Amino acid sequence: MQRKLPDNPSLHFASFQRGEESGFTYFFKTLYQPVLQYAHSLIDNEPAAEDIVEESFVKLWEKRTMVQSAASVKPYLFAIVKNTCIDYLNKRKTETKGKREIVWLSETENNPLQEERNFPSIHLNMQDAVEILPPRKAQIFTMFHLQHKSIREIAMELNLSIGSVKNQKSAALEMLRNYFLQNRWKK
Known about the structure:
The protein has helices at 9-17, 21-43, 46-62, 70-101, 112-117, 126-131, 135-146, 151-158, 162-183.
């Protein structure tokens, strides 16, 4: 059975740092709405904002021993939310960029230029595209475009420099462009 603490942030903080549910519940109930509004203002996507806030409270709980006082819980949590929102926006930006970069791989149905010039349509799905690449380029292309990992994440995971990952990604894209250009005239 949980003991009920008086509404004293310092007592709740001590409980929170000891890993007691009552301390966490106090800060959750006190800060959930303000951080949710903050996250929503940053990313303008309510379901994603809710996920980010929940994830941020988990991070806060996991790092509770790093928080020095009851007064620092709120700024610490807001910093976690801000950083998580930035990561979310960067990932969305990367996904959007990836979709733009590989749009030419999709079928060109209802494309007036395609119909006007009577180009044969190319039926190249993503798996076919990846199979024409050398293994390392295929791996980086897949991690970036299909798994939506950042350049930095790929570099860390593959133990490569960021520059190497960028070069490999660009080279893979260039190979696919060349493949597309060479094969678009074949029926």
